[in-house]
Amino acid sequence: ETGVTQTPRHLVMGMTNKKSLKCEQHLGHNAMYWYKQSAKKPLELMFVYNFKEQTENNSVPSRFSPECPNSSHLFLHLHTLQPEDSALYLCASSGLAFTDTQYFGPGTRLTVL
Amino acid sequence: TQLLEQSPQFLSIQEGENLTVYCNSSSVFSSLQWYRQEPGEGPVLLVTVVTGGEVKKLKRLTFQFGDARKDSSLHITAAQPGDTGLYLCAGAESNYQLIWGAGTKLIIKP
Questions:
Q1: Distance CA B86, CA B93 (A)
Q2: Which of A3, A5, A98, B82 has the fewest CB atoms within 10 Å around its CB?
Q3: A77, A67 in Cβ contact below 8 A?
Q4: Is the pLDDT of residue A56 over 80?
């Protein structure tokens, strides 16, 4: 595997379900990001981790819970989501937070019923 | 809060035509990036412009950063179906966080 990978690529869940999104980067980077992409809206930065420490949490509802066990892996735990949370969730990584080029994964298309 | 407006939101043209898309803000950015996102993929960085008035070329794509570093344009010459995608611009604030535009969806018809 090369670059940034995300699993699953597609996810359909009910509002009472608990699921997790996984991101893995094979670039030796130290910063990882979660973004939400909704149609016709700008990318929304959700969380940033730099050297495994969370440095940004842009007022994201607590039903989204990130986890970064090491610099290569990033998870987004989901529980009791709302239909408006349906979107493409993108993971990205960079050498250092914000100062280097960000490389994106292909995203997870999430549908909340 | 800084905003980046991209125009047009959608553009569909025939192969071989030229086009320009725009990225505008009322605020100054330290740099500006252009990305292309193809269906089912994440955004891929095309170019970063840093200096006011800077022009960068990437084959048939020409990127320009406004003199005041508030706006940018992307011009494509002789568009090809492979240019189809969502073009995103992102401006870097002084703290290096990126402010994103909503994108221009471009379709090049054969």
A1: 23
A2: B82
A3: yes
A4: no
pLDDT at A7 over 60: yes
For chain B, the first-to-last Cα distance in angstroms comes to 40
Give A102's contacts in chain B (Cβ within 8 Å).
Answer: 45, 98
Q: Considering only residues 8 to 67 of chain B, which have any Cβ-Cβ distance to chain A shorter than 8 Å?
A: 9, 40-45, 48
Out of B40, B43, B97, closest to residue A98 by CB? B97
Backbone angles phi, psi at B81, to 5 degrees: -55, -30
Query: How many angstroms away from the CA of B102 is the closest CA of chain A?
Result: 4
| pLDDT above 70 for A40 | yes
Position B100 scores a pLDDT of 94
Q: For chain B, what's the residue count?
A: 110
pLDDT at residue B58 greater than cutoff 70: yes
Nearest residue in B to A98, CA atom: B96
